[in-house]
């Protein structure tokens, strides 16, 4: 691992507090199509894209007509009902601005669709700090497959061994490792340390990482 020069961020559960809202949107959309799935079954799947979540919960492919309708309805419910409830996690904006000010290149790797991702980054309050915002539209397969991380890396124009990725789920950690970038985890998405054990470092959330930045792997990240 070289000196970190760039950082890729997940968004849901990492920069904004939205994982519970995503789970409830799935439950409501599935119920409209006759699938009674408890939120407790959906919640551990948040962090993967709909292409992974839908088959696990229903056996339907995300590419077949009914699967597309359910996924589209889930997107609409989240955007209309739950997005207004979403708030940035403490320290998220300040962490981004600190890293950007230190000369670190920043990118996003999120399973959300492009339009929704833009709205989520607006909630964080620092939408213009990223070299690349890779969305689900940029990847054939969602996390834990590394496609979205590869798309973010391409936008950063940096080799993987000088890039870290910060996420809140084991799917983020696995995607980072498969893309050969340094995985850093935050607990703010509701996962336990045992689930995030393959990350190099684990913090409570963006504020905790900001406070401990000088002792983290990102301490020497600034481009001098």
Structural notes for this entry:
With 224 residues, the protein is α/β, with parallel strands linked by helices. It has two domains: 6-17 and 87-215, HAD superfamily/HAD-like (Rossmann fold, 3-Layer(aba) Sandwich), CATH 3.40.50.1000; 19-85, DNA polymerase, domain 1, CATH 1.10.150. 41% of the residues lie in helices and 13% in strands. It is built from nine helices and eight strands. A six-stranded parallel sheet has the order 5-4-1-6-7-8, with helices on both faces. Strands 2-3 form a two-stranded antiparallel sheet. Helix 1 (19-32) crosses helix 4 (65-82). The mean pLDDT is 94.
Uncertain segments of ≥5 residues (pLDDT<50)?
Answer: none
Instruction: Give the strand order, joined by hyphens, for the main sheet.
Output: 5-4-1-6-7-8
Instruction: State the separation between the terminal residues, measured CA to CA.
Output: 18 Å
Helix and strand pattern: EEHHHHEHEHEHEHEEH
Q: Write down the overall geometry.
A: globular
Number of helices: 9
Mean pLDDT: 94
How much beta, percentage-wise? 5-15%
The helical percent reads 40-55%
Structural class category: alpha/beta
CATH topology title of the largest domain: Rossmann fold
What is the CATH architecture descriptor of the largest domain? 3-Layer(aba) Sandwich
The radius of gyration is: 17 Å
For the sheet with most strands, the description reads: 6 strands, parallel
Number of domains: 2
